[in-house]
Amino acid sequence: MSLYRPEFSPAEQSNIDAEFSRLANNKSVYLDHAGTTLYAENQVKAAAEQLQRNVICNPHTCRLTGDFVDQVRFKVLEFFNTTAEDYHVIFTANATAALSLVADNFDFGSSGNFHFCQENHTSAMGMRERVHANGIYMLKEEEISAGLCKENGIVQNGYDKAGNSLVIFSAQCNFSGYKIPLDAIEKIQLHGLSKPGKQIWGSTKEKAENVDNNYYICLDAASFVGTSPLDLQKYHPDYVCLSFYKIFGYPTGVGALLVSRRGAEAFGKRRFFGGGTINYAYPHAMDYQQRESFHQRYEDGTLPFLSIVGLLEGFRTLDRLVPKTEEFSTMERISRHVFGLAKYLEDQLKQLKHPNGEPLIQLYNKAGYQDKSRQGGIVAFNVRTESGSFVGFGEIACVAALHGILLRTGCFCNIGACQYYLDLDEDAMDAIYKRAGRICGDYFDLIDGQPTGAVRVSFGYMTTIQDVEELLKMLRLSYLATKPQQRIQFIEEQAEQLPPVLKERVQLLRPKLLQMAIYPVKSCAAFKVEGQDSWPLTEQGLKYDREWMIVDMNGMALTQKRCTELCLVKPVIKENQLELQFGDSSSVSVPLSLEDQAADSAKCVSKVCRQPVEGLDCGEEVAQWLSQNLGLEGLRLLRQSGQRNSSKAKQKLSLVNQAQFLLVNRSSVRSLQFEEPLDETVDRFRANIIIDTGCAFEELAYKSLTIGGIQFQVEGPCQRCDMICINQRTGERSPETLTTISRLQSGRMRFGIYITRIAKDSIDSEAMEHHMTCGDIVLVE
Fold first, then answer.
1. Within this chain, do residues 500 and 449 fall inside the same structural domain, yes or no?
2. Which own/partner pairs from 68-77 qualify as long-range (CB within 8 Å, at least 24 positions apart)?
3. Which of 286, 314, 342 is at the close of a domain?
4. Full domain range(s) for residue 679
5. 779, 545 in Cβ contact below 8 A?
6. What is the full DSSP assignment across 329-348?
7. Do 489 and 575 reside in the same domain of the chain?
8. pLDDT class of 484 with cuts at 50, 70, 90
9. Torsion angle, alpha carbons of 602, 603, 606, 609, to 10
10. pLDDT in tens, 666-715
11. Cβ proximity of 279 and 290 under 8 Å
C-alpha cells in the first residue's frame, strides 16, 4: 500500500489553496488538468493590471507591445532550458495549429515517409491528410520506447532533398499518462527506424525499409509540459508543439511551435504568406520576399498580442507558488506532486472490491506507477459491477457531476489509445463508429456491454490529496454501498442540475426492451421484433407465441430434444399467413386467422407438460412438408384452440411450458463468454423478452417489473435443460453450455426468469389490445 507524501510545504500549500479558493466556494473538485489546468486568482488580476497600466496595442504601432512579445519569447526558451541559438519560437493559436504548421511545411523530398503513433492525439493523426510523404505508417508506442532503430549505420545528420522522414509521437499520452522515453529522440535521429510500422498509405513497406532517409522528430508536448519539465539542452526534438493553457490555465488561444536549427533546414518553401511574414509582395507580378527572421515567416497576420503578454503572469505565478529548490526545478516539483497523487490513487483504486471480491476498477496504463519518468499524473479507468460487467462512463460522468467532481470521460480525442487499452479490433472499431454512429465527445459508452471509452482523472499543482479522497468517496458510496436502482433513482431525481448533454445520457440509464422473440411453432425458430417495432399482447402472452406445435404419429409434441432440426424451421408472420421456411427454397403457409382455419380443420388433443391441449389439425399440405424436411414420418401441425391455465396463478397460457413470458438479460449471457457471436448465445435461451441491464444476473433478484407501463410479476428462474446446448442457427450441440451455467450459478441450472403479465382489472385483457415496443423502458420494483 502506497502512502501519500506531500511535495509542498504547509506554507506553500496554504498559498496555493488561497489562489484557488473558488473551488471550495463552489464545492467543486477539479480533476481534468489534462484537458486544461486552472488559472490562479492573482495571475489573472496581475494580467488585468498589466493591461490597465500600459497602452498595449498592435505591435506595428506600439514598440512596447513588441518588447513584451520578445520578452515572452525569451521566457519560453528559458522555460524549456534552451536559447535562441538553438530554437526558434513561433507563436500559434494552439498545439493543433503548431502540428498543422509542421505538416504543411516539412519537406519530405522524393522518398521521405511520415510515421505517427497509434496513441497520438487526433490533431497529430490529422497531419496525415496534409503531409506530402512517400508513405504513411503507424507505429505503436512500445516500438518507439524500445528504440527500434537500425542496427548498422548512421543516417546523414542534416537536410537532404532526396528523403526526409518525419516521426511524430506524444511525450505523454493524454489517455493514460504513459511517457515515451525521450532518449528515443536522438536514437531515431541518428539511426532511423528498423520498422516503419503498419502501412496506412503510400509505397510498399519493403521499399520503405530500404530507403536511408534523414529522420526528424516532431514532439507533441501538449499533455507533457503541463506537469513535467522538458529540457531542450538534454533532448533535441526538431519540432515541439504545445498549448500554454495546459501549463497556466490562462490565457487560451495561444500556443507555440519550437523549431530547432536542424528542423528549420527541413522546412520547404511556404505555399502561403500572410501579413507580417514578408518584406514585400507585388500585386502585378509573382514576386515577394520573405522576412529574414525565421519565426516571422510563419506567424501569419497580427499575433494575439494581448494573450501573449498575459503569458508573463503565467510564468511568474508558477515561480511564485511552486518556487524551485536547490534540488528541484519548479516543473520537476510539479511533476513529483502529480505523480505522487496518481500513484496513491492507483493504489487505492486497486483496493476497491465488491463483496464477492471482484475488483470495482479496471485500470488502463502501460508502465504502472513506479517510475515518474514513464508515467504522468493521469489515471484512466472504468468501473465494473459485482458480476464483472462494465458501467458506462456516461453514468460515471453523471454521478461525478452530481457530487461536484469535474472529470473527463470518453476517448479524449485519442481514438488510437482507446483502441489499444480497450483491446478493440478493427471490426469493433467499425461497430462503434460506423455502424453504431458514435462520434468523439458523445456519451455512447457501451456496445454489447463493452466500453467505448474510459474515465480519466488528471492532476495539476493545485490538486490536493483531499480532492483524491473525494473521488474515492464518491466511488465507494455510489458503486459499493448503493444498489444500481438506488443510484439510477438518485441521478434521475437530480437530473436538472446536470449539463444538457448529460441530461440526455440520464434517459439511457434505465434498461430498455431490446428485442421480442415470438415462437409461433413450439420448438421451432423465432420470429424477431426489434428496432422500434411494436407487437400486440393477448391474455396468453405475445400474440401468436407458441400457438402451434408439431406432433408425431402418436400425437406427442415434438421438441428439439428429439429433433434438433426443428430450430431450422423458420416462421415468418406476414399479412394473414404464417409461412414456415426450411432452407432457402422450401416453404409452406397456414392461415393466421383462427376462424379461417377452424372452418376446415379437424379437432384433436395432445399434451404439453402433462396437461391435455385441445387443438386443430392444420392439414395434409403442411404435414407432408414437415415430414419431408425433418425426415420423420407421420408429423402433423396442430394449433391450440382451447384454453390452458397455469397450475399456480391460473394464468392463461399458450403452448409454453411454464409461464407466459421468458426474460433473458444480455449482460448475463455476455458473462458466459462463449466463443461465438453474442446473438447466437442469446438465441440458445429462447427468450421472449430480451433486455440488457449492464449487470449480469441482476434479473434473478427481481420480484416484479414494468415494461412500457405494462406490469409483470416474476414467477421464478428458469431451470435449464440440455436444450440450451443446441445452437439455434445450426442445430449443432455444445454440452459445455450447461456446465458453464452450473459453474457460474454454484451448481444450479437456472438462467433467465419467467414472468407473467398482471392485468389491471377484469376488463383489461378483453376490452383493448395492448402493445409492447422495442425501446420501452424497463422499471424494476
1. yes
2. 68/305, 68/308, 68/309, 68/312, 69/303, 69/305, 69/308, 69/309, 71/312, 72/308, 72/309, 72/311, 72/312, 73/295, 75/311, 75/312, 75/315, 76/256, 76/258, 76/311
3. 314
4. 661-780
5. no
6. -HHHHHHHHHHHHHHHHHHH
7. no
8. confident
9. 130
10. 988 988 888 888 999 999 999 999 999 888 888 988 999 999 989 999 99
11. yes
Residue tagged active-site, from 413, 695, 718, 774: 413
In a domain, 648, yes or no: no
Apex CA 166: angle with CA 164 and CA 170, to 5°? 165
Starting from the edge strand earliest in sequence, which strands make up the sheet with 541-542, in order? 541-542, 534-538, 770-773
Which residue has cell 500554454?
244
**Which among 280, 314, 348 is the end of a domain?**
314
Tens of pLDDT, residues 174-222: 999 999 999 999 999 998 887 777 888 886 655 555 456 899 999 999 9
- 578 & 456 share domain: no
412 in Cβ contact with 442 (< 8 Å): no
pTM attached to this predicted model: 0.85
**Residue where the block lists cell 399482447:** 537
Residue 326 is assigned to a structural domain of this protein:
no
User: Which residue is associated with the grid cell 534540488?
Assistant: 327
Which of 150-154, 409-413, 435-439, 557-561 comes out lowest in average pLDDT?
A: 150-154
Torsion of CA 606, 612, 616, 622, to 10 degrees: -30
As a whole number of angstroms, the distance between CA 276 and CA 288 comes to: 12
Look at the block and give the residue holding cell 389439425. 617
Q: How many domains does the chain divide into? A: 4
List phi, psi (to 5°) of 41: -60, -50
CA 483 from centroid of its chain's CA atoms: 24
Residues present in the chain in total: 781
Decide if 511 is inside a domain. no
Grid coordinates representing 525? 425458430
Residues 366, 371, 374, 376, Cα dihedral to 10°: 90
Closest CA to 107 of 299, 263, 222: 263
Q: Which residues contact 760 (CB under 8 A, 6 or more apart)?
A: 711
Residue 576 is assigned to a structural domain of this protein:
yes
Q: Is 609 a catalytic residue?
A: no
- At 647 the pLDDT is 57
Locate 214 and state its grid cell: 534523414
Rg (CA), the chain: 34
Q: What one-letter code names the amino acid at 730? A: T
Helix (H, G, I), strand (E, B) or coil at 529: strand
